[in-house]
């Protein structure tokens, strides 16, 4: 009897592992696939919707507002794994009000864009943002990479590739494996995961002014997983906790002004 129960348990476990392995990208990414409107329809009429291509020819679009001053800073916002860039319109609105330029990157598989969502493909889409701004004549030193949740993986990769000067991570993490272990402690996540966003193995080689902001009530990315990344990162760096914030809702808790103060402080050091 015990042997039968044990055998059945093993079979069920193997089935669960196989199912999660096959469907893992559906569990990791939650895109809104339909087009969710232009900047004006989403309350940021100062932004322009631009059309561009990734390095592999993938058609993309993004929202862009120039900085108040030509030499001003420009935030490249790499959003998280759910929704579309339209859901981050308020972040853009608050940063633009402070005089910053904002480029909001949309990914393939999101917001009406065709294409397959994978880690490597999102890196291609992330590079298209940097290239677009370089082609517009902006200097790499003007760019502030802003990674939200899974976007922290894209921002970290871009910081490594382009030697950017500033990076802000909201709800960032050490790796997707660390997040997965927390969510699925009963699965061999490290062996199964395809899109790993292994930020912690990259951050030690990146020379960037880093700000990490995180909600203490974040139930998606545990704050300890964010701190794992912070501990390995090079100086200058700063970690700010928001007592009443959750996952990537920090702009509702005054994050814009804190980021503004931090960024201005980097230029006076």
Structure in words:
By secondary structure, the chain is of the alpha/beta class. The chain has a single domain, classed as 3-Layer(aba) Sandwich (Rossmann fold), CATH 3.40.50. The chain has helices at residues 2-28, 89-97, 119-135, 151-162, 176-183, 189-192, 199-203, 223-232, 255-266; strands at 30-31, 48-53, 59-65, 74-78, 82-83, 101-105, 143-148, 166-170, 209-215, 237-242. The strands form two sheets. Strands 2-3-6-4-7-8-9-10 form an eight-stranded mixed sheet, with helices on both faces. A hairpin with a 5-residue loop joins β2 and β3. α3 (119-135) crosses α4 (151-162). The chain starts with a helix and ends with a helix.
Please count the beta strands (DSSP E, at least 2 residues each).
Answer: 10
What is the gyration radius calculated from CA atoms?
19 Å
Strand content: 15-25%
Straight-line N-to-C gap: 71 Å
Main pleated sheet? 8 strands, mixed
Helix content: 25-40%
Gross morphology is globular
Using the coordinates shown, work out and report the CATH topology.
Answer: Rossmann fold
What structural category do the secondary elements indicate? alpha/beta
Number of helices: 9
Largest sheet, spatial ordering of strands? 2-3-6-4-7-8-9-10
Count up the domains. 1
Low-confidence stretches: none
**Secondary-structure element order, as H and E?**
HEEEEEHEHEHEHHHEHEH
Taking all residues together, what is the mean pLDDT?
Answer: 95
CATH classification, class level: Alpha Beta
Identify the CATH homologous superfamily. Alpha/Beta hydrolase fold, catalytic domain
**How does CATH name the architecture?**
3-Layer(aba) Sandwich
């Amino acid at each position: 009897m015990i042997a039968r129960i044990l055998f059945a348990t093993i079979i069920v476990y193997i089935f669960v592992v196989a199912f999660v392995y096959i469907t893992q990208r559906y569990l990791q990414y939650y895109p809104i696939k339909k087009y969710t409107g232009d900047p004006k329809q989403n309350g940021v009429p100062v932004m322009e919707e631009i059309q561009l291509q990734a390095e592999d020819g993938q058609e993309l679009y993004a929202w862009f507002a120039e900085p108040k001053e030509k030499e001003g800073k420009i935030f490249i916002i790499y959003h998280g794994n759910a929704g579309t860039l339209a859901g981050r319109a308020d972040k853009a609105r608050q940063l633009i009000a402070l005089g910053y330029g904002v480029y909001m990157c949309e990914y393939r598989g999101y917001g009406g864009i065709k294409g397959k969502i994978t880690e490597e493909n999102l890196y291609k889409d992330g590079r298209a943002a940097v290239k677009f701004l370089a082609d517009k004549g902006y200097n790499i030193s003007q760019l502030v990479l802003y990674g939200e949740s899974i976007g922290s993986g894209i921002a970290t990769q871009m910081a490594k590739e382009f030697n950017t000067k500033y990076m802000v991570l909201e709800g960032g993490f050490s790796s997707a494996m660390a997040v997965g272990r927390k969510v699925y402690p009963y699965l061999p996540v490290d062996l199964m995961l395809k899109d790993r966003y292994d930020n912690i193995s990259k951050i030690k080689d990146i020379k960037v002014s880093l700000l990490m902001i995180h909600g203490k009530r974040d139930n998606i990315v545990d704050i300890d997983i964010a701190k794992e990344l912070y501990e390995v990162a090079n100086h200058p760096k700063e970690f700010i906790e928001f007592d009443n914030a959750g996952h990537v809702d920090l702009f509702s808790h005054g994050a814009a002004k804190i980021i503004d103060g931090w960024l201005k402080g980097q230029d006076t050091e």
